Automatic annotation (TrEMBL):
It comes from Stylosanthes scabra. This is Ubiquinol oxidase. CDD domains: AOX. Keywords: Electron transport, Iron, Membrane, Metal-binding, Oxidoreductase, Respiratory chain, Transmembrane, Transmembrane helix, Transport. It catalyses: 2 a ubiquinol + O2 = 2 a ubiquinone + 2 H2O. Binds 2 iron ions per subunit. Its main location: membrane. Its cofactor is Fe cation. The keyword Lipid metabolism does not apply. Its EC number is 1.10.3.11. It is found in: Membrane. InterPro entries: AOX (IPR002680), AOX_sf (IPR038659). Belongs to the alternative oxidase family.
Amino acid sequence: MKHITLARFAERALFNGGRNYQCHNFSFTARHQHGGRFGSFHWRWMSTMPDIKDQQHSEEKKRNDEVVNNNNNNVVVSSYWGITRQKVLREDGTEWPWNCFMPWDTYNSDVSIDVTKHHVPKSFADKFAYRTVKFLRVLSDLYFKERYGCHAMMLETIAGVPGMVGGMLLHLKSLRKFEHSGGWIKALLEEAENERMHLMTMVELVKPSWHERLLVITAQGVFFNAFFVFYLISPKAAHRFVGYLEEEALISYTQHLKAIESGKVENVPAPAIAIDYWRLPKDATLKDVITVIRADEAHHRDVNHFASDIHHQGKQLKEAPAPIGYH
């Protein structure tokens, strides 16, 4: 009876095994007691199909491991998610080298803008903002003195904060109240991104020391939180503060230009990132870079004083057209 059952079981497994390729092995063990000196015997049968599949799986895994290793060596991101960098070319047909911005983000800065305009403080909020900025200017001058490059670098780490804070708070307000911002979210975030590009350019020219990096971390942490609270309390005063901050930036960059013209600062070739971002000529120099950065700061000055004036009139920013598209 045992022999018949075992035979049927083996026959069924043999025929089913040909149809089912997902099984890895078939194993049968039969123990037959004959007693005496024969003891017992074991019978084991295994399909050859799983061996082939295991071998194929092993080879495929080896190929995949080689691809992964090659990708790791070449720092190539997997395209599993379908995210691939499109091939972008310059106007001359060469490949675009930057990932942080694209050709459609570049522009020609309006260097004809008036860099001497000044908003005369009238209200208490204006005077508070103006005197606060002047006090901060004294501290920065005492620390940096005539190190114009380091001063500009430090200034840009601070100047890139207000646009991000203002744009973020307007974004949250838009979500909270189910209303449009009139384009001001985009305008303020464009300002923040432009200030960051100023910083990326200055870092190519000036290598900050460890204590300057520590100063940047400290100043950014304090300023971000302080300006966040400031903007929540009074957007009117916050934008006026930024307007005056940009006026001081104009003074600093004008002094930088004079130092270049007088020979105190070497007029070195412009960094490649600046040439592409502002569409400068290939032979552009540091003087050209400082000139376009100063023009950008003048635009930021006007935008923030304009925003403060809107609030002074008792209106919201969304009621006035946002200056989008300058950058």
